[in-house]
Design goal:
PDZ; alpha+beta; Stage IV sporulation protein B; Thrombin, subunit H; 6-stranded antiparallel beta barrel; Pdz3 Domain; transmembrane helix; membrane; 29 strands
Length: 422
């Protein structure tokens, strides 16, 4: 009899201990920062916990609004809430951001991108041979480095490589020196350069290779069907030689066609090989070049056969490890749907590497080997919501790569802007 009592007592204690441990684990897992849709107020809890843990609003702060250019003009509100056991005993406080829904049309179209820099970028240095046969580096000696942006020569703005060449030649002829205003990292600096007369070209030169534009092929990520605001690429455009971010002066996107695929393999990312379509059915401006992509306004005919209407945006906290789909072009101009898996979600990153995605679709693996250059910007859809875009491939594993949260793209595009309450 006594043995039965001891067994029952141990069993009760064990059950209580298990319940206590489960409760502690739940307490640890309750989110401190959470995003929910309007109309949803309960935490994402399972089973009995959803009925015994209540959420109580402490304070609100309508700090986030969406620019008037968006079709839905949504507003979000930050709430301070408390999780309470049985609605009485406080467990933890948290910040909840209540999001109005945004709807966008997923892209997938192959686009050609041309971009003119703000100023002229220095991409290399070359010796100038003077009349005595001596190799000189006038610009380098004055402190101008690869990656710097030339802004003005003799107080005149320069926007093309030809303008730089002509201004230096003229200043060399007239004065023997040239005042050069340039941007070095975040500083604007003015230096005096002494151009050298080059006997080979018959012109005064300062010994620089410069570039005023960039071009390439990528993928459209999304378009707002009313405002025509778009996002593409999912990552910043950098100069091929310097790896520096290109400051945009002017640029455009148009349709492109893919006529070949260089398949990716270990240590060598593949790429789409395409060409611009002269009579493009759509075109767009490039107004911003950011860490999460390029943004501007689109005109013309934009169609995705898989989405006749805009679909909801999936916020960061809605993204789950598991199956998803991407939309991209691998032949001609036809958008196709492919299966991928989200292997990992990295909530603390604010760059363009927020998810690790893995291609699982046999057709795409056969055609491309996985993720390839030119696929950047391909929209990622999970559970009927647009959650992000493909950005980078793993060099040593072309089946895997990174994706950016659509939320981060919206933030960088200024479609989400924080404003203090009036």
């Amino acid at each position: 009899m006594e043995d039965d009592k001891r067994v029952k007592k141990r069993s009760v204690l064990l059950i209580i201990s298990l319940l206590f441990c489960t409760f502690l684990q739940l307490l640890v897992e309750l989110p401190r920062i959470h995003q929910i849709q309007i109309g949803q107020m309960e935490p994402d809890l399972k089973g009995i916990w959803s009925s015994i843990i209540k959420v109580e609003k402490i304070s609100s702060n309508p700090t986030v609004s969406v620019s008037s250019g968006m079709s839905t003009s949504p507003v979000s509100e930050k709430l301070e809430v408390a999780y309470k056991l049985f609605g009485i005993f406080p467990l933890r406080s948290a910040e909840v951001e209540v999001m109005n829904p945004i709807k966008l049309v997923p892209g997938g179209q192959s686009i050609g991108v041309t971009l003119q820099t703000k100023g002229v970028m220095v991409v290399g240095q070359a010796p100038v041979v003077d009349k005595d046969g001596k190799s000189c580096f006038p610009a380098k000696e004055a402190g101008i480095q690869v990656g710097d942006i030339l802004l003005k020569i003799e107080n005149q703005e320069v926007k093309t490589d030809q303008e730089v060449s002509n201004a230096i030649n003229l200043a060399g002829k007239e004065k023997g020196t040239a005042k050069v205003l340039f941007k070095h990292e975040e500083q604007t600096i003015e230096k005096v350069v002494q151009p050298i007369f080059c006997s080979e070209t018959g012109r005064y030169r300062m010994g620089l290779f410069v570039r005023d534009e960039a071009a390439g092929v990528g993928t459209l990520s999304f378009v707002d069907p009313v405002s025509k605001l778009y996002g593409a690429l999912g990552h910043v455009i950098t100069d091929a030689d310097t790896n520096q971010k290109i400051e945009v002066y002017n640029g455009k996107v148009i349709a492109s066609t893919i006529y070949a695929i260089e398949k990716g393999k270990r240590g060598h990312p593949g790429e789409k090989i395409g060409s611009f379509i002269p009579n493009s059915v759509f075109s767009g401006t490039i107004e911003k070049n950011t860490i999460t992509g390029i943004f501007g306004r689109m005109s013309g005919q934009i169609e995705n056969p898989y989405f006749k209407e805009a679909i909801p945006v999936g916020w960061e906290t809605e993204i789950k490890v598991g199956p998803a789909k991407i939309y991209t072009v691998i032949q001609g101009e036809k958008i196709e749907e492919f299966e991928v898996n989200i292997d990992r979600v990295m909530h603390n990153r604010t760059d363009s590497k927020n998810m690790i995605i893995r291609v699982t679709d046999p057709r795409l693996l056969e055609a491309t080997g996985g993720i390839i250059q030119g696929m950047s910007g391909s929209p990622i859809v999970q559970n009927g919501k647009l959650i992000g875009a493909v950005t980078h491939v793993f060099v040593n594993d072309s089946q895997r790569g990174y994706g950016v949260f659509i939320q981060n793209m919206l933030n960088d595009s200024n479609q989400l802007t924080k404003k203090e309450a009036a």
